[in-house]
Every structure is written in structure tokens, then in C-alpha cells.
Amino acid sequence: MSHAVSIAQYIEHHLTHLAYNVKTSQWQDDGSFWVINVDSLFVAWVLGFSFLFLFRYVAKRVTSGTPGKGQNVVETLLDFVSGMVKESFHGECAVLAPLALTIFCWVFLMNFMDLLPIDLLPRLFGSVGIDHFKIVPTADPNITFGLSISVFLLIIFYNFKVKGGFGVLKESLTFPFGPWLFPINLMFRCVEELVKPFSLSLRLFGNMFAGELIFVLVAAMLPWWSQWMPAGAWAIFHILIITIQAFIFMMLTIVYLTMAHEQH
After folding, report:
1. Would residue 1 count as lying in a domain?
2. Is 182 within a domain?
3. I need a surface site. Which of 44, 128, 169, 176 has the fewest CB within 10 A?
4. Residues tagged active-site
């Protein structure tokens, strides 16, 4: 920015999305349902397609001889995720392992954007006239809820596919207190199912937003020549956080889909 700003203005600038209102066709966030955070979607899509392209590129050039570095990395991730799925899930579901791998890699890449210099992309986009641009998609609750709702719909689908409508109804009315207390059983089942997308989305959003906010505060309150020490220390610790959050999102997805396949 070419003019001096206060700390409050600096923080507000970095926490403001590049938003587009579909209803009014204006680049303005009025808090309505029709507002799309274009920056979050753009970064998420770029990372998602990059991940797919990279894995497809490696798969097309896989060799049974001495593998290259890219093949080593991809095979390590495949073995890691496949091992997690086999330990938790004992049925047959061709979707689960690829879904878990996609979730882990995609969420990790979106989290990793938090480690880029806080002013890098906003300055680059600012040079072409874009005032606001947040670079961490998982610090946006719209993205995390979108991911969790997708998993939630899969949970519902597999519940009915594996158990059937009658099986789901019977399970909802009789577990855990028996058929005579079916209103309480049904209430517990509704709460149990509705909590799943919230637990997935809010945990990821809260951790990533807090991490992003700390980087912004360090950049806003300290001169540039002294930022490297606290920001660097937090970045080292944050590497662990972004990896754990991707792992937790993947593992909860595996657990929830496992529960959808199993009878109580």
C-alpha cells in the first residue's frame, strides 16, 4: 500500500475477502447469502487442480524400477493413507481410500498457504488493482463447511445404501436405549449426525484462522527487520498444526464413513 495505515487498518485489510455479490453483481460483501469469497475459491481450485495434475503426471510415468523423487512421495502418501483406511475400515468401499487421500492432500495444501509471507500475494494482486486477497482457503468457514457438508452427504448416502431405509429407521429408533424410548433415541441420532459437519468444519476453520491471525498480528505490530524471529518460530510450530489438521479431517472422514457402513 502506498500510504501509511494504522495497525487496525492493516489487520482489517488482511482479514477482508475479495467478495462478489451474485445477486447485485457487485464486488461488495454485504453479509448476505449470495456473497462468494472469490479469493478462497480461486486458491482452493488452483491447489486442487494442481494436486490432481501432479498425481496424474506421476501415475502416467510410474516405473517398476528405481522410482524418482515424485513417485517416492506419491507412493509414500498412498501407503500412508491406505494403511489408515485398512486399520479403521473393514468393509468394501472403493471410494473411501481415494477420498481420504484427496482430503488429506487438498486440505494440507490449503493449510500450507498460511506459511507464505503474509503480504506476498496481497501485494501482487494489489499491483493489478485488486484491493483484498486472502490466501488461506481453510481460514474461510465457507470452504471448510463446503468440505464437511460434502462428507456429510456421503455419510447419509452410505447409511441408506448399506443399511437400507428400514435399517436406518430401526437403528435411529432403537439405539441406544431400546425401542420404548424411541423419541430420545431419535433425538440423539439427529444430534449425532448434525454434529459431524460442524465438528469437521469448525475445528479446521478455528485453527487456521487463529494461525493466520497470529501472522497478521506479528506483521502489523513489529517492524519488518524484527519479524523474522517470532514469525519464524510460529511458522515452525505451525507446520505441525497444518499437518495435524489435515490428518484429523481425513481420519474423521474415515471414521464417520466407517460408522455409516457398520451396524450398531
Report:
1. no
2. yes
3. 128
4. 199, 203, 207
